[in-house]
Design goal:
2 copies of one chain form a homodimer.
Chain A (H helix, E strand, L loop, with lengths): L11 H14 L13 E4 L13 H16 L9 H5 L3 H8 L3 H14 L5 H14 L15 H12 L3 E9 H12 L6 E4 L1 E6 L2 E8 L8 H10 L5 E4 L5 H5 L3 E6 L14 H10 L2 E4 H4 L6
Parallel strand pairs in A: 1-2, 1-6, 2-3, 6-7, 7-8
Antiparallel strand pairs in A: 4-5
Chain lengths: 296, 296
Amino acid sequence: MTDLLASWAEGPAKSELTDFFDRATTPGSDGFIEPPDRVAAFDNDGTLWVEQPLPVQLDFIFRALGGAAQQDPTLASQDPYRAILGRDTSFFAAVGAQEPEAIRAIEEALARTWLGKTPEEFEAQVAEYMTQVKSDRFGVPYTELVYKPMLELFAALRAHEFRVFVCSGGGRDFMRVIAESAWDIPRENVIGTAPTYTYENGEIRRGGELLGGLALGPGKPEHIFATTGRMPAFAGGNADVDIEMLECAAFAMLLVHDDEEREVAYTKAAERSVEAAQQHGWTLVSMKNDWRTVFS
Amino acid sequence: MTDLLASWAEGPAKSELTDFFDRATTPGSDGFIEPPDRVAAFDNDGTLWVEQPLPVQLDFIFRALGGAAQQDPTLASQDPYRAILGRDTSFFAAVGAQEPEAIRAIEEALARTWLGKTPEEFEAQVAEYMTQVKSDRFGVPYTELVYKPMLELFAALRAHEFRVFVCSGGGRDFMRVIAESAWDIPRENVIGTAPTYTYENGEIRRGGELLGGLALGPGKPEHIFATTGRMPAFAGGNADVDIEMLECAAFAMLLVHDDEEREVAYTKAAERSVEAAQQHGWTLVSMKNDWRTVFS
């Protein structure tokens, strides 16, 4: 039999995954999941690809917002522009901690930056970014920094009749540009923070607000339910903002970034999620010990 | 070769559909559509099942709103409660014509009626309705009034690697209850008017607003784009509120209700769409002439 998880080292994480597949797909077993309920949802940044020193989408957004602030100096004194131009990490920590004022500032800036743009215009901007910008640490475009074991896990889930979704706090439409080529996931299975759209004169254009708020923390199950009509049966994440999504799932896995040599070792913004994993018995995946290979 | 459209009579509609499939799936042909772009979107009421004398979901909603107005007499003087209790069709015509005040009144009532309900509570209410209520005209539950030729068309689209979505002005979560059993469509492929949701204390509950407005008229391409990240390549509808969705598609079909004997003959709220079909060369499907069988 082919090992669907060939890049995963033998150990507790791999065993728990294969046990889960056995139970989920064996009618009559304790953990059997009816095929329609087989929805799997994954965070993106830090779960599917490298998020250090800065999540790719934030880098993309900060470049755009920095550009906007240079064109309109009145913005430079307001957050998030002020924080971006001044590299003030306390503001981004406040976003990560979901402080309402910081969230509102970033929501407004996100929506305003691409107001009135067509999807084609936005896509062209993302595509240009993805080909031109390379990771400082690895020297390759970010799409080459997708974790191979996670792509194998996607394929294993599909082989067991799961539908795989990505649900990220980052921009949904940013991820959709790369979803099919980088993950082999159709665009409609990408969930995330997204603007309203307006259809007029035969064209779709970005509106000035976010639709349903940020897909972070409680926003993740909210967005997943809105898109799929279900809570996920399987969920994977790596950070505190994934806790609510993970606690909804029958099987939850938390990726731990402990591989200084092949990736980056850090625990920041994941302290609470590691505690929650221990408390709820979620599967902890150590990048160092559980993955034979990190990148394709 | 198996005829995937066996319930369709030989004639222009069937020919145009089979020609479309040939072109869409032949690499190098003029109308070739790349597999990722093969998104098909269908209206529900009047396109997939009987919508006369009243769309099923409106009947469901009106019963619920009528019940709410009986419990709270202060509502009885306001639209839409007033119109429902008094059977004032002019209000519903105003909704159909997308008059802002009527739309707002119905949006508010829709959101308020199920505020705070869990998905399970709402689903149980729909499931009860679907088993207990029968069509006056046909004497069977509405789920038996799905058009067989449309289910064949879904299967034919899937056989040609299309992903089939339903996009209705009616309630998304109402349709999701029947999507898998009645249409063989996963819940996540159902798009429609829907409330916000709030995740708190491990539970999802309905919020008090609509997310992205009604999926009618321009709201259809807006909701389809939000869900799929694309404009549909194929679209099917039957009414004026479908025009914007149909005009986005490479292939559009408009179902004409002209079969008094087997269904209901009417042109109301479809006058502009028939004109648009003639103007744009959309495929007109006559229920009377193009369908050998109407129901399964």
